[in-house]
Amino acid sequence: MGTCQTLSYDALVVGGGIAGLQAALDLADQDYSVVVVERDASIGGTMIRLSKVFPTLDCASCITTPKMAAAAHHDKITLLTYCELETMERDDRGRVRAVVRQKPRYVDEDKCIGCRQCEYHCPVYVPDPDQGNFAARKAICIPFSNAVPQVAVMDPESCMLCGTCAKVCPTGAVVYDQQPRKIVIEALTAVVATGFSVTPLEDKAQYGSGTIPNVITALQMERLLAPHGPYNRVLRPSDGMEPDSIAFVQCAGSRDKSMGIPYCSRICCMYAIKQAMLLSGALPVADIFIYYMDIRAFGKGYEQFFQNARAMGIQFVKAKVALIEPGEDGAVTVRYEDQLNGGTTTASHDLVVLSLGKVPGWNPEGRCALTVGPDGFISGPEPKLAPTRTVEEGIFAAGAAVGLKDIVDSIAEASAAAMHAANYLQSRKKALEAVA
Amino acid sequence: MGNEQETKKGVDKEVMKALRAARQETIRRVSAQVKEQKKIIASITGELKKGPRTVPEIADAVGLLPREVLWWIASLKKYGVVLEGEKQGAYFAYRLAE
Question: Which residues form the 4Fe-4S ferredoxin-type domain (chain A) (predicted)?
């Protein structure tokens, strides 16, 4: 481990997704100094990887990138990317003390100018998880086109030390022997916004355990629909055919005790409807089906969005899908129990999208004293009246880390957490001044 | 300045030597992978030199699974080697960039 550095700020924000960025911007705009610790090589979280957002159908990239840039350029915000939060505790003076491990990028962040010469010349192609693994990136690359910061990252497990990247780098930024760095952060308050992650396709044996090429996750479909997606259009991953029949399978891993996820993810109904609408625009003659248990259109304008989708001809089938199997010529066979007409029915589709379970993105156990509920999401003493409060005084939580929610609610909650954190900062600063 | 650069290059050589010794296994594995990848790229671009082809056509010609061919087409398109061409039935044809 490299040198240990201690940095002091008014506020620490854990997680650089949309909730973390909103909290950081709200605090920084009140002139508090903020550090954002992000696990990934870029800020932006799940939202920057989406195509469009419901129910407004705004381009996700177009509305997330300005927030990312605002955070990156804010005088009062420091971004620490590619960093894991190892521990976070309150010291005897009530300050938050966090230990962060900055993973090596094998690239000097200060020297890299994001020109991508290393990426263009690297000879090693590796699957790109930011494109749903549908295309390659290189062993050294800028994570994605609108990543912030625009700094390359090398994967040492896919590097053969050929030296090409160092040779072509115009600023000498490649550091093959870079070491992880330990950073200690001291702050008066913290906001935890660590988001959610999606359960893997492999977890669902009845749906092919990830072995059927044309059964994909909803986040993979986001990439197929995104303007900078892997194919720049929607194609079937097994052979590049433009699909004629696409099905969405809802609750494919949530509301299911056998999967250990008995709760509803809240967002799947709406993103499936959104994706179905985008697909009907991209593939006007395709048949689109949504197999659902109930449609939960709970937010402002959501019911109308659902009704619009029906009017557009998207077929909603009230059914529980029991089995998904590979069919002939890349087709996918879906066997389901029809809950309106009764009986078991089989249908064939070119592409099937699963709304898999969503779980917390980070577990505080062993890292800090925050508590979680039975579902693993961060819990607090007043879930009804002060949902952003945690059991630790001065540490607040927001977004999907507290419980699954959509972008609108995540942003609103992040602003609420920032307000609580600002109030707390004000009282702490007054107390410290009184002591001085 | 010249001296400094020379020293830096000398250090880099030593660093690379030590790293290559420590990561022998990874280097061997990735080098074999790159060799294989170069062969695949050559076979796909070789096929496209004959004219625009769809993914199943390329797969048939080069003996790879269509999904592997699509992965390579998407990747080569990203790095400017391949371009999307006309649609032929339900499939798009791809061609080499100039």
Answer: 103-132, 150-179
Of the candidates A81, A316, A134, A341, the one whose C-alpha atom is nearest the C-alpha of residue A240 is A134
Task: State the smallest CA–CA distance between residue B67 and chain A in angstroms.
Answer: 4
CB A400 within 8 A of CB A410: yes
Q: How many domains does chain A have?
A: 3
User: Which residues in chain A have Cβ-Cβ distances shorter than 8 Å to B23?
Assistant: 156, 161
Q: Which chain B residues touch A233 with a CB distance below 8 Å?
A: 92
Rounded to 10 degrees, what is the CA torsion of A183, A184, A188, A190?
A: 50
The boundaries of the domain holding residue A387 are 4-103+180-195+361-435
Cβ(A289)–Cβ(A347) below 8 Å: yes
Whether B4 shows a pLDDT value over 60: the answer reads: no
Q: Does domain B2-96 have CATH number 1.10.10.10?
A: yes
Say what the ipTM of the complex is: 0.94
Mean pLDDT across chain A: 96
Query: Each residue of A18-49: pLDDT tens digit?
Result: 999 999 999 999 999 999 999 999 999 999 99
Question: Which residues in chain B are contacts of A177 at CB distance < 8 A?
Answer: 15, 18-19
Query: Beta strands of A172-314 (E only): which ranges?
Result: 181-192, 196-198, 215-217, 245-249, 287-292
What is the C-alpha separation between A327 and A83, in angstroms, rounded?
A: 44
